[in-house]
Amino acid sequence: MDGGVTTALTGVRATARLVARDDGRGGTALPVLESDGPLALRRTRGSGAEARVMLVGAMSGPLGGDHFTVRAEVQEGARLHVGSAAATIALPGQTKGEAHYDVRLAVSEEAELHWLPEQLISAGGSDLYVTTRVDLADTSRFVLREEQVLGRVGEEPGRLSSRLVLRIAGRTVLDQELTCGPGAPGGWDGPAVLAGHRAVGQLLLARPEFAEHPVAARQLAEHAVVVPLAGPAALVSAVSPDALRLRRVLDEALAVLSA
């Protein structure tokens, strides 16, 4: 189902929404799959009980002044995998002001969500604020990959602010924010933060078994670490010279933590 995009003087407003539920036959149904303007949701072939959805960019953006929102709800017993068809590129627009990209994810008891979009690229002159809020139940299973690339090849980055919030059973276990690029607080490119790297990523995992057997804090690669969170969850943080090497590090981390 495709909705109507709202265009205002301050930019484009668009919201996409999907709901996954147990179909009662060992699979997952998608009773709600609403696309809107530049945010196109397309169901693809799943595997076993898991439903798969691709987020396809139907137009350029987000541009300056745009506000995109994606909402996903995975109901009890359902399994959902969401990816994207290509990288998202934040670009400067004719409208002044920052752009916003909000992601809202909710996963119920005994449900599972893998949220694995492609990279977000902060092009020169852009100004984007990304907020991802995740609400899980105690028995939810969850994987989120977040990758951000500062500037295209040979290009200075735009300003990029990113906030990630995780709540489990109503308790906040992670709330962190990073701002990079022109106008960001001093030191963002220094040795204590990115140390000159231009790709930064995170892998967030939540599993019920982590409550009994927490992940041990340790270094996973030269510029990647994993830390346990105050709940059945763990966070991998990594920086890298480029997107390709960042993906390789995060894939290896996911394989280690899934073993």
Could you characterize the architecture of this molecule?
- This protein has 259 residues and is mainly beta.
- The chain has one domain.
- Helices cover 6% and strands 55% of the residues.
- The chain has 1 helix and 20 strands.
- Strands 5, 6, 8, 9, 11, 12, 14, 17, 18, 19 and 20 form an 11-stranded mixed β-sheet that branches. Strands 1, 2, 3, 4, 7, 10, 13, 15 and 16 form a 9-stranded mixed β-sheet that branches.
- The protein is globular and about 50 Å long.
- Belongs to the UreD family.
- Keywords: Chaperone, Cytoplasm, Nickel insertion.
- Required for maturation of urease via the functional incorporation of the urease nickel metallocenter.
- UreD, UreF and UreG form a complex that acts as a GTP-hydrolysis-dependent molecular chaperone, activating the urease apoprotein by helping to assemble the nickel containing metallocenter of UreC. The UreE protein probably delivers the nickel.
- One of its GO terms (molecular function) is nickel cation binding.
Helix and strand run: EEEEEEEEEEEEEEEEEEEEH
Which structural category do the helix and sheet elements fall into?
mainly beta
State the low-pLDDT regions, or none: none
Mean pLDDT: 90
Count of helical regions? 1
Instruction: Give the % helix.
Output: under 10%
What radius of gyration results from the CA coordinates? 18 Å
Fold blueprint:
Elements lengths: L1 E2 L2 E3 L2 E12 L5 E9 L2 E9 L2 E8 L9 E8 L4 E6 L3 E3 L8 E9 L4 E5 L3 E3 L4 E10 L4 E10 L8 E10 L2 E10 L18 E8 L11 E4 L2 E5 L4 E8 L2 H16 L1
Parallel strand pairs: 1-4, 3-7, 6-8, 7-10, 8-11, 9-12, 10-13, 11-14, 12-14, 13-15
Antiparallel strand pairs: 2-3, 3-4, 5-6, 14-17, 15-16, 17-20, 18-19, 19-20
